[in-house]
Amino acid sequence: MGTLLETIHSPADLKCLNVVQMAELAAEIREFLIQTLSKTGGHLGPNLGVVELTLALHYVFNTPDDKLLFDVSHQSYIHKILTGRLDRFDTIRQPGGLNGFMLRTESEHDCYGAGHAGTALSAALGMAVARDLAGGNENVIAVAGDAAFTNGISFEALNNIAEQTKRMIIVLNDNEWSIDRNVGAIARYFHRIVTNERYRNFHDSATRLVERFGGKAAVTAMRRAEEAAKGMLWPSLLFEEFGLQYFGPIDGHNLPLLIETFKFLKSLDHPVLLHVLTQKGRGYQPALDKQKKFHGLGPYDPETGMTEPAGLPSYSEVFANTLTELAGKDERIVAITAAMPSGTGLDLFRPHFPKRYFDVGIAEEHAVIFAAGMATRGFRPVCAIYSTFLQRAFDPIVHDVCLQKLPVLFCMDRAGLSGDDGPTHHGLFDIAYLRSVPGILLMAPKDEDELADMMKTAFDQPGPAAIRYPRGAVVGVGRKKEPQALPIGKAEILKDGSDVAILGLGTMMPLAAELAARLERDGYSAALINPRFVKPLDREMIESYAGHVSAFVTFEDHVKMGGFGTAVVEALDELGSAVPVVRIGWPDNFIEHGKIADLRAKHGLSVDAAQAQVLPLLAHRRRPTLVAS
Ligand SMILES: Cc1ncc(C[n+]2csc(CCOP(=O)(O)OP(=O)(O)O)c2C)c(N)n1
Questions:
Q1: Does the pLDDT of residue 334 top 90, yes or no?
Q2: Alpha-carbon span 629 to 616, nearest angstrom
Q3: Which residues line ligand 1 (CB under 6 A)?
């Protein structure tokens, strides 16, 4: 750790430094981030881009009194370091350690938690209006990336800000990247501003002015910015139309310029937007060379930026390769991502069918309604969206897709516990929010071959469908040559049995199999079932086992409430059966971040826990086991 960094225990320590020392501190922070995250993993690129910006914000403003929000908040690591969490920073994303996002329970300086994009402006406006009503005086500052402005909520907030408060600062942190390259008209609009010659000239002269004269000149510089903005070639500046005064773009790595600018903006009595240009990955060549990879990654070699080679392919890759194959045979298939081409694997599909691939930006609701529109015209759209982000699109799924019985396929990547990212990213609610929607087919594969079969199944039927599959590597069973459609609503009986029926949904199959094996060893006859379909549930199978087993056990990587086990309980209730169901799934709590295996053990998603709960229900069934002599 650098010598200056060691002296920073709170933002007050920062305020004692001069600009030269702050520049040294910025370099120390970069080195510290590169070294620390090489062990823990994390969002290195975005944080390397906002070192000076965060230093300047904490230099000028006073958290926790002033309210500082980061959109998504994956870029809040420097904020954490400066606000008393330096000594614990090496625990970031580790079990029991700091969360990788802002968390209200973690620090009084984290005034708003996030993990999903597009929330900062609305939440900041809420805080500003609350301040105005309470007669307070604090500053409210929202930092949002250029990709956050592809999100509808940001614009819903913009539509309200000028009417509802006189004091709020928005910082547009423009690095031209989302996780992948930022897309769409807004991205192009920002790009036009950035590459405009007048701004370039202004920018250079503003920088020189601030460097020469400090505070006073910055005010002059800002006024000039305003003039330059007014004189631009296109008729109106977007943010001015929203009633915000627009400043910039300024160099987001020029500390004196940032400091003077924030001092000036703080004094204004109307809402403002400052456009700041930053470089994602700044100061670390591997991150500059591989922007996507270093947006967020696991441990790496700090010298080279190299990561451990992946072993088996991921579910995302199998999904994308299968989709490419199926799309080759069916021209109606189109693929849609909401700003996650690499995360979902769709970047593998894109080169094969560039015209049938759509990245709509961070716009999950739009993605789903756009898909619905295409489906009305005979296409077979696939929305590849993480389970957690699809939460945003619940209403379009109900109102636009399912109500109209449109054949949109939702491929829900990262379904189940996400691990290190924590509660904002766990995909633990999709069964609950989809199971209740009439007409949707809901499936969960036990391995990669079944994922391909389920995609084929979805395309072969006429209505909406969803498939949930986990983050990470596949089981390794390989894939048969051609995916085959599965009989709809039919479970797969892997092994018959008469005492207990064990149902392992999707990724939970190994736990179910292990429980079945243990119970068999103990002298019970255990049926092992791969449900495949959450909806429609295989009622025939349930009815048949309800006739002779003493218990069902269900395993799911999902909250118990409203999940797969609940569906089984409801089916039994409707059948008038009193056979008990041991449900293994996540409890009715938000689950913290950590290692998946540890968290499963801690929260009772284990074979031991299932065995302990089911054995008392089976006691009367026990047969003597044959012991080899
Ligand atoms: C609703 C939602 N969809 C997708 C994501 C995944 N995601 C996390 S960060 C990010 C890109 C953010 O880009 P930007 O706002 O420009 O910030 P930068 O990382 O470039 O600093 C995306 C798409 C998310 N967090 N929330």
A1: yes
A2: 29
A3: 46, 71-72, 74-75, 116-117, 145-148, 173, 175, 177-179, 280, 295, 338-339, 362, 364, 389, 392
